[in-house]
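--- STAGE predict ---
source: upstream dedup step, 1 unique chain passed
mode: sequence only
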Amino acid sequence: MSEIAAVPVIVLSRHEDRAEALNSALRNKGQPARVMRLDDAGDLAEQLDQGHWRLVVVFADESDGLLGTAGAVVASAGRDIPLVSVREMLDEDIIAADMALGADDCVTLAQRERLAGVLDRELKLGRLERALKDALNTAAQYREQLRRVVAGTADALSHVAEGIVLDANHAWAQLFGFEDEASLSGFTFMDLFAPEHQPAIKGALVACSQGRWPGQALKATGEARDGTPVSMELEFEAANFDGETCVRVRVPARRDDGHELEDKLRGALQLDQGTGLYGRRHFLEQLDERLKAESPAGVQALVVFAVDQYDKLERQVGTRAADVVVAGLADLLRDVVQARDLYGRVGASLFAAFVGRGNRRDLKAWVQSVGQKVARTLFEAGGKSVSISLSAGIAIAEHKGQELDLLYGEAQEALSRAVDMGGGQVGMSRHHEDSTRIEEMDQLWVKRIKKALIENRFRLAHQPIASLSGEEKDLFDLLVRMVDEQGDELLPNQFMPAAERNRLVKNIDRWVIGAAFAFCASRNSAKAFVRLSRDTMLDSMLPAWLETRIKNTATDPTRIVFQVTEAAAASHLKQTRDMALRLKKTGFGFSVEGFAGGPGTGQIIGHLPMDYLKIDGSLMQGLAADTKLQERVGAIVKEARGRKVRTIAERVEDANTMAVLWQLGVQYIQGYQIREPEVVLSAGAD
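--- STAGE serialize ---
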């Protein structure tokens, strides 16, 4: 005989014996219960949000208004939880009044048989209502799936389970060059796609089958039966085929209407005819508009790519065949840029892209990944297979309103240096500020930072950290902003370097820590990641200061995770370990961010008592199509898992990368794929 599971029940009463009496009544009825007693209705809403409670029982005589408050809380929870009122004495007027306040029935402790019967009946009714709601929801989902399938018959559809094609429609068969859809049944799904895209697709299939795929489309290259590459975007949704749970993969059909045709005609005038990218004139016009707009967080830069030894390529394959190679290169660039990037052809063998990335290291890593992908690709032209290399020049857009000609000139100068290094290289624009200019600027920044600290003109921004495994929720990475004299926000890369050079960073860190305490106090279940600079991490007085803050603010230290950079931890391994141990002893969490897993960094995972490890965003650039990068990230995840350290991928900016991270076992991600940082006003340290 199977064991009956204990049902969770909340009892509102100040007396433990009354809760035990209900527990006994249910047990005697053959229904074990897990009873939680609450003294009043103040904690009821929080408990209903946190648990799967099946019954609420209120001893209404103990306090005037107790039943009414409880009824309002249960109703607002929207969970269809039965509510039973218990009183010393009952008559029809009292029963009517209690039911008007939200009670489903009323009982007394004196009538134990009726008490047990009512409780048992309400539990059974609750189970039936939940089962009916689940059935209706399931039916609605199936109806919606059927509607979408019927309405979208022009879409290419395939049902996949455990990596095998269960079924596909005619459009899917045509897309991949099969004679009919029956030929695909039992086919290995991954064999339909280029090897570099298979990890992302596999990760998306696993995530979707677990109900965790957020719905973004993946860019992928399919391989038709004759070897022809087919660019597409894949959509994934959980489905059921012939009684078997599976994933439906969809390639939406292109549907033209009058407006779309008009847009295409207008766009054709802006495009380079040989590649389909923006032509030089339109690209520069769009770039000029971008430079006038407010810069988003992170780093923006103009990147100019050049095909190395293009004249030699023309002599090798001929002018028209060289144009075919350039067109193939354009297709490759189109696959690796992101939706918000601007890119175009600006010369016979020149391409340009205006891109935004997390920081300069991410930017350079992305440009290098583009060059590596080009170097690995064979281009077919003039009956020959040729390989080419790209040189690239990067110019950082430092501020809003930067002059286009100046930025383009810096990118061209950086490109020339890359070409001079032998081709296939990446050049960065020179910084013309000498040490004297930096010192002069620091003097101005020091005054502004000190004044901002005095006037409490700092703000927090919080960026969510999303779980890929359904574990902890409400994780946030906290970032600091400074508000200038005109009320405009300044990003950390504008003022923090000067603060670090002039020993003001500890003051800012103390403000951020105080603001983080206030942030957690305003969010019941939030856990915040707070950065510690190298100077603060080496400050032996920090633990004592934190203990004082905890006492004064009644902050739960387990909701704060302090993080230091890999570079700071590697340079001061012993001091970092000592500080981490002291912080964890107090109850705080500890993390290392910007972890790239270079030589000697294994000591960091092995020696530091960390709870989380943040994998550097530079490793996310090109990850979806780079097996070596995937192996590197996978090795980091494996080592961290072996030491029970949870992993977070930084600066994740596209669905393909997220899908690969899912496949590699990374547990959390953060970045613009999740959400941009949101500014919140927070009180700083006292």
